[in-house]
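Summary for the steering committee. The consortium agreed at its last meeting that each partner would contribute one worked example illustrating the joint modelling workflow. Our contribution is presented below. We chose a case with several input lines so that the handling of multiple components could be demonstrated. No manual editing was applied between input and output; the record is shown as generated.
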Amino acid sequence: MLARVSSTPTFKRLPRAVREQQMLDAAVKVFSRRGFHAASMDEIAEDAGISKPMVYAYLGTKEELFVACLHREGTRMMEAIAGAAASDLPADERLWRGLRAFFRFVGAHRDGWAVLYRQARGEQPFAGELATMRGRLVEVVAGMLDHALRAEGREVGPTDLEVVAYALVGATESLADWLADHTEADPEKTATRMMNVAWLGAAQLLHGTTWHPPTP
Amino acid sequence: MLARVSSTPTFKRLPRAVREQQMLDAAVKVFSRRGFHAASMDEIAEDAGISKPMVYAYLGTKEELFVACLHREGTRMMEAIAGAAASDLPADERLWRGLRAFFRFVGAHRDGWAVLYRQARGEQPFAGELATMRGRLVEVVAGMLDHALRAEGREVGPTDLEVVAYALVGATESLADWLADHTEADPEKTATRMMNVAWLGAAQLLHGTTWHPPTP
Amino acid sequence: MLARVSSTPTFKRLPRAVREQQMLDAAVKVFSRRGFHAASMDEIAEDAGISKPMVYAYLGTKEELFVACLHREGTRMMEAIAGAAASDLPADERLWRGLRAFFRFVGAHRDGWAVLYRQARGEQPFAGELATMRGRLVEVVAGMLDHALRAEGREVGPTDLEVVAYALVGATESLADWLADHTEADPEKTATRMMNVAWLGAAQLLHGTTWHPPTP
Amino acid sequence: MLARVSSTPTFKRLPRAVREQQMLDAAVKVFSRRGFHAASMDEIAEDAGISKPMVYAYLGTKEELFVACLHREGTRMMEAIAGAAASDLPADERLWRGLRAFFRFVGAHRDGWAVLYRQARGEQPFAGELATMRGRLVEVVAGMLDHALRAEGREVGPTDLEVVAYALVGATESLADWLADHTEADPEKTATRMMNVAWLGAAQLLHGTTWHPPTP
DNA sequence: CATGAATGAGTGTTCATTCAT
DNA sequence: CATGAATGAACACTCATTCAT
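What follows is the complete predicted structure of the assembly.
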């Protein structure tokens, strides 16, 4: 510990970009394992194999660091989804590919997902950040539904559309939580199940079936 | 230092049970506003109009206090739902009444909901506690679906049933989040919307329609 | 716990003197087990089967309570010794009886000994209290030695006498510690051993043998 | 609040080893003066001219800090004794030099002695730590006695030997306490006195004289 | 007489953050 | 560029002590 031989400094003087990625990797890992508050900058720095002042120099305060994690993971996720669900496909195909890409991402980045949702949801400072990202997802889903509806010659009020989309996104997140907790579970199968719930429900909507509260 | 006027001691020497409720009220409020970690026992005690040692004497450590909040709010919620959805009603009626009770509860106890889900989900020590409660909800929902299915002469594998129920619960929680964030929103309407998504999707399931991934 | 049936209050309204002895018993026990600081008034009160305010009403603050324990145990011990070593016996007989009474006392009141010495020695507020008691012991022992010396026609300077007496008392305390820690040990045997060390050394002194540092 | 003049920062950024010694010095002093419980980490830190977190970073919790003090002082003492009493000397010479070194040490490190014995004896968590150290002393003394006995062609049962050694160590500690309390006392003289008591008693033992309780 | 209810004051401990080297 | 050294500020938790009933 104390006697650190100064020769062969094991990967020093790396370019800034690389170092930043190492730090973010470490941060995502530690935030995911411990939660935002319980995570300590010491542990993150140590896990990144770097000293604390460097973390501050490169990525700022703890909150900023967390936001940086959020951004990176969120962007990666959105890219994975967007890359899979090209907009020139039929609606069900788009939805399926998007869902599959999403669950694949969650399955492969369980840490990232934990940071993204489980942590961010609970801590006020990041709720906004997260809301934005989720908002984009909701928009995409609502867009798909609207597109499909119009193709059928039907139309639904924007609020209803949004709420349905919101519910679908919520159901998806819920299954993502479930997936993140079950290491052995298969992302592909989970996607299929979600597709069943989502598409069947949405299909009804597309055909104009609705439910009304009984008038007592 | 602080000149405390000695007249009208504003509610001193209350019996234990009363004080405990006051404390829980304050705790739910503060936990909800600040989050578990950011909340301080000082603030909770002050908000309850009592000294810190009393909080410890009656309700234990911070974690135990949080769990107590969880229990009280969770129990209240479950009771509200169970009381509304009597088991001798037809499936759709039960679902509808349960959902309505749920959204009414969330609308009326936005603080409690925040404590229950937003906080508990993120903090490892309480994840288990929460998982149990959610598990009970999932079971109830799955039971409803199964009951309805059998009435139609159909049957679905237990895992599929559970996942569908899980997704529905997730969707519901998501809308509850949305409701908690939109003070002006109407619980009744939100319930109706959720019912649309849930029931229409479930109805499909009931009729045996399923979706399969395209085989490329 | 909460529902305490009010009939048969198990020994209430005892006369003050009895209650005080109960409290002291409890206090000695708890102080002995936990140490002065680690002991809590709550535990003492509970162990005495009485409420805290009563303890304060009867025996004062924690420090005063500890001093009360010290006094009672110290007095008991001194009485046991004094009663055994009547001053009209020959010196060795007196010493032997005194030692035997002492080790018997320690053996029978291990708790009291722990309070008396092990606790009191370490805590400044009581060091003086204790020094007085030990001083009396040293005086008694020095008196014995002086008496025996004069009987032999010899005399020793008062400081030397005191220091020798001090050393003997120290040796005795040390063996008392040892005895208190070894529940199975026999007080009688321990007394014999101490007598060997003490008397043989003292006997030399009585006969005028002395040791001088080598002059280099 | 406290106007701290910014010039001459009085010893900042010292290497770790130095700071640790400063802390231990301060800790020994404060523990000695106040006792373990009454001592506060704040006072120790302030006395060391450093902030509390540094104390925790370098030497751990309060208990660990106390143990560290115990170790340092104990080691110093043992080294002082061992260095003085070379094993190739005659028994009485060894004993004398050992005693002298011991009392010199106590006289010069009265704080250390208080920490070592007066505090440690009373607080359960450290009793074991201390027992070990005293045990080593007892062994050394018993070894000396045994050596001398065998040289005289005599032998004594191991328990008797140990108890005698125990008594001698106890007497010595007792005089050390006395010395620590009397600032003006001369360690050299105290050592001589102890030697008289010890050696004269031991000499008797060496020559086979024993005392037996009168059979009434 | 006896007690449950109540608290002020203090302590150990942690951690994000920043200099001086 | 990189880091060990350093700290301010806060927080959970405890306990001796005292009223009001």
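Chains C and A do not touch (no CB pair under 8 Å). Chain C has a mean pLDDT of 84.
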